[in-house]
Amino acid sequence: MENNRLNLNLTELGKALPNWSIESIFSEDTVPNVADFKGKPLLVLFFSLGCPGCLGRAIPYANRIVYENEAQINVVGIHTNFEGIDIPKAKFERAKDEFYMRFPFYKDKNYDTTFLNYGAGGTPHWLLVDKNGKLIYSIFGSDPNNALLRLDLKMKELFEM
User: Fold this and answer.
1) pLDDT(55) > 90
2) Residue 70 resides in a domain
């Protein structure tokens, strides 16, 4: 899967989340594997710096989840880019500061490899993985009364297990 951009939707609810194809943005960041997060639930956010819903709602929501639930869940962001435009490191640094991003984030390999392989529907797209590494929920959007509310309910169920 490492270089395969055509193997769409490798994910299946109730099955282990396959490893992603992501790259470090900041040289000091080590790129984790999906398996590195076993033992604690994981929330994955696919986002784009060109996406208003990502900047206005999804990133603040992910920050809130980290702030309120850091002991119970890991949060990882994957920047994806449908247009195939290289984003300079300085723009990521500005975004990290401007949006006070409390979670680690990485670039999708070839701009959108993991996004495509995981069957994401657009940005923002969320994946919720249980402590055993199994995908339990996948949803597109950042509407507070739809996607984010549903994520809150799914995480509450997960934390109560």
Assistant:
1) yes
2) yes
Rounded Cα distance between 150 and 147, Å, is 5
Cβ(10)–Cβ(52) below 8 Å: no
Task: Check which CATH number belongs to the domain holding 152 and give it.
Answer: 3.40.30.10
Instruction: Please report where in the chains the tokens 């449908």 appear, as a residue.
Output: 82
Domain extent, residue 99, equals 38-160
pLDDT tens for 111-129 read 999 999 998 989 999 999 9
Tokens of residue 7, six digits: 């193997």
The pLDDT confidence band at residue 1, using thresholds 50, 70 and 90, is very low
CB 129 within 8 A of CB 138: no
Q: In total, how many domains does the chain have?
A: 1
The dihedral through the CA atoms of 91, 104, 142, 47 has a sign that is positive
Instruction: Output the average pLDDT for the chain.
Output: 91
Place of tokens 């033992």: 39
Instruction: Tell me, yes or no, whether 86 lies in a domain.
Output: yes
What is the C-alpha separation between 57 and 43, in angstroms, rounded?
A: 15
pTM of the model: 0.92
Type of residue numbered 2: E
